[in-house]
C-alpha cells in the first residue's frame, strides 16, 4: 500500500529474462497503471543469470539504495518499511532479511528443502563465521555503491552467490543489519534447487573458505 511507503521516493525495476509464465505481460499492465516513472520494465531476451540481472537492474536504478527481492512474492513487500527503518536505525550498508532469527520463518517447503537450507547455513557459519544468520536468502537492501563494489568482487554463480555477497561484505568491512521475514514458497512453478546446485554450493563454499 502506498501509505506504507510515504516519505520515500521509490521505483520498481522488473528484470524478466524471457520467462514463459507471463511476467512481462503483467509488468506491462502495471507500467500502464502506475506510470513508467514508478514501474520500469527492463526485459532481456534470455536467461543470463542472477548476477548479470543485478548489474542490469543497477544500470537503471536512480536511488541511493536498492532492495532486491523475488518477483513471485515469496518475499512480501510488507517487510520493506522494516528494512528502511533498520537501515536508518543503524546506518547499515546492507540490511538482510532473515528466516532464521526472531519471528522469521519458512512456509510451504517440504522437510528436504528445509534441511538443505538449514544445513547450508550451518556449514557456512562453522567454516566462514560471517556474522549473519541467513546467508542463502536474497531479500536484501543495499547501498547502491556497496552493491556495485560487491558485484565487482563476487565470482560465484547460482545458490552460492547470495552467500558470497555476505561473506565479501564482511571481508570489506561493510555493516550488516537483519530483519526477520516470513518466506512463503511460490504457488506456481518449480524451485531451481537441484543436485547440480548443491554440488555448486559445496564447491563455492570451499573456494570461499580457501580465499577469505
From TrEMBL:
Its cofactor is Mn(2+); Ca(2+); Mg(2+). GO terms for biological process: dolichol-linked oligosaccharide biosynthetic process; GPI anchor biosynthetic process; protein O-linked glycosylation via mannose. The keyword Repeat does not apply. Keywords: Endoplasmic reticulum, Glycosyltransferase, Magnesium, Manganese, Metal-binding, Transferase. Pathway: Protein modification; protein glycosylation. It is an enzyme of class 2 (transferase). It comes from the Eukaryota. Its EC number is 2.4.1.83. It catalyses: a di-trans,poly-cis-dolichyl phosphate + GDP-alpha-D-mannose = a di-trans,poly-cis-dolichyl beta-D-mannosyl phosphate + GDP. GO terms for cellular component: endoplasmic reticulum membrane. It is found in: Endoplasmic reticulum. The keyword Mitochondrion does not apply. Its main location: endoplasmic reticulum. Pfam families: Glycos_transf_2. GO terms for molecular function: dolichyl-phosphate beta-D-mannosyltransferase activity; metal ion binding. Residues 7-150 form the Glycosyltransferase 2-like domain. Component of the dolichol-phosphate mannose (DPM) synthase complex. Transfers mannose from GDP-mannose to dolichol monophosphate to form dolichol phosphate mannose (Dol-P-Man) which is the mannosyl donor in pathways leading to N-glycosylation, glycosyl phosphatidylinositol membrane anchoring, and O-mannosylation of proteins; catalytic subunit of the dolichol-phosphate mannose (DPM) synthase complex. Belongs to the glycosyltransferase 2 family. This is Dolichol-phosphate mannosyltransferase subunit 1. The gene is Dpm1.
